[in-house]
From TrEMBL:
Tagged with keyword Oxidoreductase: yes
A GO cellular-component term linked to this record: cytosol
Organism of provenance: Nitrosomonas aestuarii
Matches recorded under InterPro entries: Dimeric_a/b-barrel (IPR011008), DyP_N (IPR049509), Dyp_peroxidase (IPR006314)
Pfam families reported for this sequence: DyP_N
Protein name as it appears in the record: Dyp-type peroxidase family
């Protein structure tokens, strides 16, 4: 079934990962609404610059496309923000509990303890955040120009809106009025898809009905059928007001229909990467590992660091050389297929790609069904309800790769229609717990909330009958710490106009 979406009504960051369109820089602002009427007027002003999901023209003949802007702008609100904008109580009561509570109060579910506890977050999160504005630019100059325009709108609100401060900076600041993010560049100044641990990021984002150019991107990124084919996921897994994988409309939609339609929920998390700890841990573990250090790093993530090769298809150093040769000879379409079109059907034991690997934890690709004959209509029926769209960029600069302190990591944003069923489930049950993978309490290596008082471990299996011993990875330190975040509602452009006009009517 082909789904036709009103792309003029959907905020662009839902459909497009801006980084893939050469938007190398980003700036995120957080606001407080102090006066409802003036706040709504401010929302109306921002809405005039909000970037929609309409495709950008590739030539002057693209009559249904828009000119690609130098900078994009998008906006979202916390529950407290919608309340400050004076939405009707009947509408507010229709939002789900997880969104109403907000991220900090969900810390036990998310595993945000120890250094990740909200009391240790950046100062900005000590404030009550009401709104989020993102600016993505093809250059830092374009970002600054749009940022200055937003500041003008804040000033024009005449006390109705306050720009919150309290972001950490690269030079020890803790009171900045924005969070900057950027792609990382190689030694020649060329932008890369890397993050600070060195992994290639953003390869396997889900594809769903209604997105642009679905057929060319669905391999390995949609849902797996019993026949081994790939189909796009249901739109309602990522956009409110549309049918989901259960053939139902999401139950997390507030009233009225126009407030919810074409909107979604966003999880915003600032994740600090402990670079020194990661490098020392990898170096120490590799001394006792039978393969190379890069092979071990690939076992942690499920992909090789240099080019993102899936380790299930290149499980050791020798097979990686063959994979690289084939990759170098492939055309662009062939390369994309090699990076995404794979399953774990021939790796039930996890000997090739460990069950503790990052990409296998967040998207098991149907492998949770193994051992249950014909359990579901599709082999990934459970997995298909747990997919999330990932957005964001790295932030900060690693000035000393032997240290953890500093300000560097990933701005992680997850888009989904049901935070509890999708993002929180992945975080709680698949990253910080492993019962679904038959590995008990073993956490995912990279993102798990490993506790120094109860050191984590995982087992890297070998092929049955090989005669080789498995490799035990023990004393896993906490490699990533949460530095802040919250849950946001991204309205459609129609809903933004209703909010701005004070015309949200749940009756």
């Amino acid at each position: 079934m082909t789904q036709n979406l009103d792309l003029t009504d959907i905020q662009g960051n839902i459909i497009k990962a801006y980084g893939a369109y050469n938007y190398q820089k980003a700036r995120y602002l957080f606001l407080r609404i102090d006066k409802g009427d003036k706040g709504r007027k401010f929302v109306g002003a921002i809405t005039t610059k909000v970037t929609s999901a309409v495709p950008w023209e590739k030539s002057s003949k693209d009559t249904d496309s828009a000119v690609k802007p130098q900078a994009t702008t998008n906006i979202a609100f916390t529950f407290a923000g919608l309340k400050a904008l004076e939405l009707p109580m009947a509408s507010l009561r229709g939002f789900p509990e997880d969104f109403i509570m907000g991220m900090a109060k969900r810390k036990d579910i998310l595993g945000d303890d120890g250094p990740s506890d909200p009391q240790n977050w950046d100062n900005i999160w000590k404030e009550e955040v009401h709104a989020w504005i993102s600016i993505n630019g093809q250059s830092i100059d374009a970002v600054i120009k749009r940022y200055d325009w937003v500041l003008e709108q804040i000033k024009a609100s005449d006390g109705g809106v306050t720009l919150l401060t309290g972001h950490r900076g690269d030079n020890g600041e803790d009171d900045l009025p924005y969070q900057d993010a950027s792609v990382l560049y190689d030694a020649t100044g060329t932008p890369t898809a890397k993050e600070h641990f060195g992994y290639t990021d953003g390869i396997g984002d889900p594809v769903f009905e209604g997105q642009i150019n679905v057929s060319a991107r669905v391999l390995g990124r949609g849902k797996l059928t019993r026949e081994g084919n790939w189909e796009p996921l249901a739109t309602g897994e990522f956009l409110l007001g549309h049918v989901d994988e259960a053939m139902e409309y999401p139950q997390t939609a507030p009233a009225p229909w126009l407030l919810a339609l074409n909107g979604t929920y966003m999880v915003y998390r600032k994740l600090h990467e402990n670079i020194g700890t990661f490098n020392r841990f990898l170096e120490e573990q590799s001394k006792h590992f039978s393969g190379s250090k890069e092979m071990l790093a690939a076992k942690f993530a499920g992909r090789w660091r240099d080019n993102g090769a899936p380790i299930v298809n290149a499980p050791d150093d020798e097979s990686k050389e063959r994979w690289d040769k084939q990759y170098a000879e492939a055309d662009e379409a062939g390369r994309k297929k090699m990076l995404t079109d794979f399953t774990y059907n021939q790796d039930i034991t996890g000997a090739k790609c460990p069950y503790s690997a990052h990409i296998r934890r967040i998207n098991p690709r149907g492998s949770l069904e193994y051992g249950v004959k014909d359990a579901y209509d599709t082999p990934g029926a459970l997995v298909n309800r747990r997919r999330i769209l990932r957005r964001g960029l790295p932030y900060g600069e690693v000035k000393d790769a032997t240290r953890d302190d500093g300000n560097h990591g990933i701005i992680f944003m997850a888009l989904n229609v049901d935070i509890q069923r999708q993002f929180e489930f992945i975080q709680q049950q698949w990253i910080n717990y492993a019962n679904d993978f038959k590995e008990g309490n073993d956490k995912e290596v990279l993102l798990g909330n490993h506790d120094a008082n109860n050191p984590g471990k995982v087992v890297l299996q070998v092929e049955p009958g090989s005669g080789k011993p498995p490799h035990f990875v023990s004393n896993i330190p906490r490699l990533v710490e949460t530095r802040g975040g919250d849950y946001f509602f991204i309205p459609s452009i129609t809903a933004l106009k209703l909010i701005a006009a004070g015309m949200v009517d749940p009756t």
